[in-house]
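Thread: Modeling a multi-component assembly for a lab meeting

Hi all, long-time lurker, first post. My supervisor asked me to bring a structural picture of a complex we are working on to next week's group meeting, and I have zero experience with this. I have the sequence lines for every component (733 residues in total). Could someone generate the structure of the whole assembly? Inputs are pasted exactly as I received them:
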Amino acid sequence: MAGERSGDGGADLVVVGTGVVGCLIAEQALDAGLSVLMLEAGPRVERWRIVENYRNLPPSLRLFHWDAPYPPKPWAPHLETRHDKEAEEYLQLEGPNARAYLQGYVRYAGGATWHWAGICWRLTPEDMRLQSQFGVGRDWPFGYDVIEPYYVRAEYAMGVCGPSEPALQWPPNATRSKPYPMGPIPFGPGEHRFTEVAAKIGMRNLPAPQARNSGISYDGRPACCGNNNCFPVCPIAAKYDAATALPRIETKGGRILVNSVAYRIETDARNSIQAVHYFDSQKQSHRVTGRTFVIACNGIETPKLLLLSKDDRNARGLANSSDQVGRNMMDQPKLIADVEMREPLWTGVGPVQSSSILNTTQGTFRGRHAGAMFRMENFARSPLGAAAALKKGLVGKALDREIRRLAACTARLTVEHEILPHAENRLTLSAKRDWLGLNKPNIHYDVGDYVRRSAKEYTVPRLQRLAVALGATSFELSPEFLNSDHIMGGCIMGSDPATSVVDADCRSHDHDNLFLPGGGAMPSGTASNSTLTMAALALKAADAIVRDLQHT
Amino acid sequence: MSDLHRDDSPAAFNLERREALVLGIALGTWAALPTLSAQAAVTSWSDESADRFLELSAVLIPHRLNAVVGKRIGAAMNALHPSLSEQVEELLAIAKKKNARVVEDFFPDVPEGPLKESALAIISAWYLGVASPAPDAEVFAFEYALMFQPTRDVMTIPSYAISGPNAWSADAPPLSDVPEF
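Re: Modeling a multi-component assembly
Sure thing. I ran the full set together rather than chain by chain. Output:
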C-alpha cells in the first residue's frame, strides 16, 4: 500500500483492543513466555484526568451520561450523549428498539471497564442450555462444569468479592471450586431495606459479587471506601478496570500502541491471518504481523472490523462463512421505574450497585417469556432531589427539608431482561463514514415478543408490586426499552461452523489463528451483567492460544 | 514511567485543548441570549458588586457560603444578566425593609417576575454549582455545592468519600434531622 510503513518485526500474539478481554489474554500470554503486541484505537489517559473531567461536568451530565468524562478522539469515535444530535453521530441505529442499542463504551486504553459497575454474576447451568431445556435460543457448546474453573481464574485475576455462605451465592445449586478471594461489601441502608421488602414478595436480593476490593487492598490497589461514583470512574482503582493491567503488561514486556485504529485484518493464501493494518492519528497506515491474532474490540467493534476486512477469499467479511458475523446482537433490554415513597430508602452509601434479585431469571416460564434481573440503583440521589426541590421554587428551611426528603424518599428500580439471539438483530456497515473514512456501524434491533411478553406478564407487574411493598406514592415507568451496555452475540459461539462464528475456545471456525473472545461469542444473553463470563471466555481462549504457540 | 499529563495524541487533539474549545462554545452560546448584544458593554462587575452579591446570597441562603465560589457565581451570572447589580440592590432593599435575618422573613415580599426569578436563580446556582442548564455550563463547585449538604450525614458526595474500607453500615439517621451547614 502506497505510503504504508513496513511492519513491526512480528510478535507471537497480536491483540487488538485493550479492554478487559484483551488485557487478560495479553497477560496470560506474557506469563507463558510469548511476545505480545497490543493495538488500541484510542488514547492512554491517567485516572486523575478522568476524575477531573467528571468533577467538572455540570450536574446534568454527571449521572446517566457515563461517556461524558471520556471525550472521544476523532479517529476513535464512540457514543456521546450531551444532546440528541450528538447521540446520532456514531452508532447508526434502526428498528423498533433502536433506543435499546445506544451502547456506551469507551475507546480508550482500558476500554469500557473504566465506567462499568463492576458486577460479576456467573451464569447458571440452565442459562447455558436454553435450547435443550426450554426449546428457545441456543445451547452453549459446553456446560457449567467446563466454565467453572475459568470463572474462578477470572474472579482471582480481577479481584472479585462475594459471600462465602452458599445460601447467598449465585448460581444457587452449583458448588464453587474455590471461595471468593474477598468477602462481601456491606450493604448501605437502602439495600438493607430493599432486601427486606423484596423478600416479602418472594424476590431474593443477593449481595452482588463485584470486582471491587472489599476491606483489603488487592493486586496493589486500595480497598473500596465508598466514593459512590463507580460509574463513571473509580477515583482510586478499588474497582477493577483494565487500565490497571496496562502497566503490568508493559513491565512484563508487552508493547502497547495507542491511537492506533485497526481497519483491516489481512489473510494469506491459506486463509490464515498474517497481519493487521491500522491508522495512526495522522491517518498514516501501518501493518503489523504476528503468528496468532486476537480481536477483542467489544461486541460492536469486533464484528465491524471483520466485515471491513472482507477480501477475495472472504467475500462476506472475515470469519463469516456462516453469515453470522454481526448477527444475533444482544444486550439486556432494560426498563426503569422511578418511584417516590413515604419512607426513606437512602441511596449513596457504598458502591453504586451492590446487589440484585436473580431468582426471577430462572424457571420453566423461560420457554414462554424472558427471565429478568431486578435491582435498586444505589447512586446518591442528592443531586436529583436538589434539582426537583429547586424547581418547586422553595427557599430556606423548606428547601433543605424537601431536598432531604426527595433525595431519601425516591428511588430508581431497574429490570433487565434476557433477549434471545435473532439473526435480524444485525450489525452491518453503514454508508456513513467516520473521520478516518471507515464505515460506521449500523445496527437493527428489535427486542422481540419473548421480551415484550415478559414485560407485560412478568416484570412490570413485579416492579409494581415492589413499588407497593416499598410504600410508593408514585410510579413512573420508562416508555421504552433502554440499553444495558452488555454487547453480546455478534460473533456467536457454537460447535457447528454453518451456524456459528467461533468454537468453544472462541477460535474462528474459518481462520485457525484468529480468536474472537468476549461478549460477542456468548450464545445466550441472560439477564445479568456479562463481564465475568467474557473474562472467563478470555482466559479459556488464552489457554488455547498458549497451547498453539508453545507447540509450534 | 508515565508523566502526569500523559496523553499520547498530537497537541491539536489533546483533552486540554478540547476543554478550551468547549468553553469557547459555551461562551458563544451565552452570546446568543437576548440579554447580550454585540454592542452591549457588560455592566462592570466591581469588587463592590461582588460584595453586595455575597451579602444578598447570605440572606437568601441561611448557610455558610464559600466566598471564592460566590465571587465566581456572581461574575458569571452578571455576564448572563447585566441587570444583576440592580436586581441585587432591589432584593437587598426588600430584605432591609423587612429587617430580614433569614430568607423566610422577606421572600414572600419579592414580587413575581424577573426579580423573583433572579433570586431563585441565585439560590439554584449555589445549590447546584452551575448557573445555567447548558451541557457546557461552567462548574463553580462540586464538593462545595450545597445540594449535597442536606443529606451529607448519609449520602456520599460522589468521588469525595470520607469513609474507610467497608466502613459504612445499614444505619440511617431520622429523615427529620437536617444537618447543620
